[in-house]
Amino acid sequence: MIIIPNSFYGRLQPAVFQRRLHRFAAEVETEKGIEVVHLPNSGRLRELLIAGNQVGLNFEGHPGRKTRYTLVKVKAEAGWVFIDTRLPNRILAKHWRQLPPLRTYTDAHPERTWGASRFDLALQGGEPPETAWLEAKCVTLVQDGIALFPDAPTERGRKHLLELTRIKEGGGRSFVFFFLQHPGGEYIEAHREMDPRFAEAMATAASAGVEFHGYRVLPGEDRVV
User: Fold this and answer.
1) In this predicted structure, which of 56-65, 100-109, 157-166, 180-189 has the lowest mean pLDDT?
2) Is 136:88 a contact under the CB 8 Å cutoff?
3) Which of 17, 114, 139, 153 falls between 20 and 30 A from 79, CA-CA?
4) Residue 148 CA to its chain's centroid (Å)
5) Mean pLDDT over residues 154-160, rounded?
6) pLDDT of residue 33
7) Closest by alpha carbon to 180, among 224, 141, 150?
8) 147 band by pLDDT with thresholds 50, 70 and 90
9) Which pLDDT does position 62 carry in this prediction?
10) Residues 6+ apart with CB under 8 A from 156
11) pLDDT band, very low/low/confident/very high, at 5 (cuts 50, 70, 90)
């Protein structure tokens, strides 16, 4: 379990969700009126982005940016859901040494390319020395107590799995970390109904020895437990 987001955001501004304008923008109502905000998640989020739901906004205004705020969390029945897809990479950048599967590595390099894919993290070290490749996924969809990924078809995600499988079959080590940013969900599964090709690629990767790990992300003090 990872207790995170407080250190990644400033004081969040409360608001009420109104409507989604397009993949990366939404309209919310704050105490000062209607505000257009950035939406850092291209997934469908249909079970979360419902008119009237409480949301939390992080101020990220800077010169050249069209919106002042980013919508980073939504209130669901189970509690607050962090929909920010940037969180997994931020967590890895700060906490990768504390995650048990990665403790043997000494160096981490973000956004490195292997084959035709750019992965979230390349790790070096271990005994004997090796390079491992890691892709992180943000999970926000929970149905009947099961966390599901993806919540929209992802050809890019499928290609990542195929490349990670090739790395493993070539004698390397590869990981997929799922970060469950929803307080519900007992375990994580591939969402076969949403994207059967991704689910098939995930099963193939697991059979080949790609290592899958899941972590729950909850609001609170910045720590790993």
Assistant:
1) 56-65
2) yes
3) 153
4) 12
5) 96
6) 96
7) 141
8) very high
9) 79
10) none
11) low
pTM: 0.91
Closest CA to 190 of 177, 202, 176: 202
Structural tokens at position 35: 């505000």
CATH value of 87-224 in 3.40.1350.60, 3.40.50.720, 1.10.1040.10, 3.90.650.10: 3.40.1350.60
Domain boundaries, the chain: 10-82, 87-224
What does residue 147 show for φ and ψ, rounded to 5 degrees?
A: -85, 130
Q: Which of 123, 125, 141 shows the shortest CA–CA distance to 181?
A: 141
Tens of pLDDT, residue by residue over 173-225, are 999 999 999 998 889 999 999 999 999 999 999 999 999 999 988 776 555 54
In total, the chain counts a number of residues equal to 225
The β-bridge relationship of strands 79-82 and 187-190 is unpaired
Distance CA 126, CA 99 (A): 14
First-to-last CA distance in the chain?
5
Amino acid at 2: I
| 10-82 under CATH 2.40.50.580, yes or no | yes
pLDDT at 142: 96
If we measure between CA atoms, which residue out of 113, 132, 129, 128 comes closest to residue 177? 132
Across 53-200, where does the E strand assignment appear? 54-59, 69-76, 79-82, 105-114, 117-125, 130-139, 141-143, 146-149, 173-180, 187-190
